[in-house]
């Protein structure tokens, strides 16, 4: 992902928010030209910490396993010069072959069209002033992306960039074709009807049992 970002032609800074990893993540990120900061573990806290450390007028949030083609980056750069865009995400593409991955991509596009919700693995480009105005990412263990997108939707339309971002398929392969998809749909539905993110997080990644 850091190599992909080298194709950016606009002035930028790259910040990697490390949640206490014990491997070579920090060293690899620093070697790739990123500024590494330490944050409390969890997507919400890490994304919030990265935004707090950033200095630009625009923020671009990415998951570490995302891949971005030069065309996808050009689409994001073009959005910076469009005054009607305050926030945007990429359509989702998943790396790999198989009809079920294509089905997930189509389902993600349909979800976005019907509900206005884009997930974090689709990236998020947002003006800093809008991000701050809506309160930014919550430091919650799950659904931080849905929470922020819903906050943004109250003030601005989420634009769609023209070229997809590419997500790694390992999560879908590990969780199973049906089980993972149904679980995510169930968690989203429960969240939208008011179940708290802390409770959902225990179902998403159950705590190990004491022995």
What does this entry look like structurally?
By secondary structure, the protein is an alpha/beta fold. The protein has a single domain, classed as Alpha-Beta Complex (Spore Coat Polysaccharide Biosynthesis Protein SpsA, Chain A), CATH 3.90.550. It is built from 10 helices and 8 strands. It has helices at 2-5, 25-31, 43-53, 70-79, 99-115, 128-133, 144-153, 170-175, 177-192, 197-204, and strands at 15-18, 35-38, 58-61, 87-89, 92-94, 124-127, 159-160, 165-167. The strands form 3 sheets. Strands 3-6-4-7 form a 4-stranded mixed β-sheet. A two-stranded parallel ribbon has the order 1-2. It has a two-stranded parallel ribbon with strand order 5-8. Strand 1 (15-18), helix 2 (25-31) and strand 2 form a beta-alpha-beta unit. Helix 9 packs antiparallel against helix 10 (197-204). The longest helix is centred in the middle third of the chain and has 17 residues, at 99-115.
Quick structural gist:
The protein is built from ten helices and eight strands. The chain is α/β, with parallel strands linked by helices and 211 residues long. The longest helix is centred in the middle third of the chain and has 17 residues, at 99-115.
């Amino acid at each position: 992902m850091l190599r992909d970002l080298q194709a950016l032609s606009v002035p930028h800074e790259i910040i990697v928010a490390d949640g206490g990893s014990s491997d070579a993540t920090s060293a690899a990120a620093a070697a790739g030209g990123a500024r590494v900061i330490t944050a409390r573990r969890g997507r919400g806290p890490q994304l919030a910490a990265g935004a707090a450390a950033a200095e630009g007028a625009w923020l671009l949030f990415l998951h570490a396993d995302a891949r971005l083609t030069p065309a996808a980056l050009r689409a994001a750069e073009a959005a910076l010069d469009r005054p009607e865009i305050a926030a945007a995400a990429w359509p989702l593409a998943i790396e790999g072959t198989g009809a079920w991955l294509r089905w997930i991509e189509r389902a993600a596009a349909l979800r976005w069209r019907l509900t206005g919700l884009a997930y974090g693995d689709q990236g998020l480009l947002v003006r800093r002033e809008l991000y701050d105005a809506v309160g930014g990412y919550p430091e919650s263990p799950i659904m931080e992306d849905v929470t922020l997108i819903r906050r943004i939707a109250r003030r601005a339309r989420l634009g769609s960039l023209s070229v997809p971002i590419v997500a790694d398929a390992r999560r879908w392969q590990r969780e199973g074709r049906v089980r993972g998809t149904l679980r995510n749909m169930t968690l989203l539905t429960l969240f939208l009807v008011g179940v708290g993110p802390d409770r959902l997080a225990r179902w998403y990644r159950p705590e190990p049992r004491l022995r």
